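Slide 14.
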Amino acid sequence: MDKQIREFLEYIELERGHSQLTIRNYESYLTKFAEFAESSGVNNVSKIDLELIKKWRLELHRRGLGVKTLNYYMIALRSFLKYLSKMDVDSLVPEKIELADTPDREIKFLEEEEVKRLLEVNSGKDDKEIRDRAMLEILFSTGIRVSELVALKRDQINLERGEFSVLGKGGKARVVFLSDSAAEWLDRYFKTRFDEDEAAFVKIKNVKLVGPPKAEGWRGQTKNEGEKPDTEQTKGEMTAKRARLTARQVQRIVQDSAKKAGIVKQVTPHVLRHSFATDILRAGADLRSVQSLLGHSSVTTTQVYTHVTDKHLREIHKKYHHREPESNKENITSNNISKK
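Slide 15: predicted structure.
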């Protein structure tokens, strides 16, 4: 079973293009299952049956795992069984593994006024504020994931066209679009960059650049704690290589900006992704278009936002489709007749 699990992990990496995070998670889930199966006297995939799966579910439940996490284990196991079926290896039919019902997912997002406050808290008084404003603008304008943001390169972004392509989950490419405001702040941010790093968003600190102060490209930087760039000298010419921002650092920047803006909600890059989706759905975008913009492989994933937009539609209906109750109309008619 261990050998077949390794082959399955190689398959989803090479053939299916799954991310390294997904592969690591699947490896963890399946390794634990294989150990449990062996302790139950099952060391061959042909002996996997529903009784073993039932015992595995019970074991996970007793370990204190929630329904959602338990489903992750079952999804990994079902994918493994699908692979075995594809390879004509005799084992349990994957469709026999059912997932537990989970409560509706709660979507956290910012209202329009909160987004405005979050963006404007970085007014651009120094290089860091310009960078952070550009970052927040791009997150809300495009709805990209934080992993997609930190992987961005400067030459990927076409400011004239206001668009760029990103690689999402599973290596799937999609085009996203910049608002005029996002494009303007990105342009302003890129003009503060005198380093040679290809990353779109990099750390900023008091860079003491090597080489003569008047060398082409030399520029003093403001001090920002926790953001230390790398510097190097090549053939007497000054170059500065600043480290690419990590996902965790972007999360801190978003959280700090939210605090400065006086927003009491917990704000993360993913909350901005939700805010983007909610905003364009409320404006009238169809679900399929939002699916494409977010890079969801299934429209089912995108449908989670309808719970939010349905409430908004109810308000719109009440505001613009107001009619007098029939009972009121009858009373008005009766009063008019009696007067006559």
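Speaker note: Residues 20-39 form the longest helix (20 residues).
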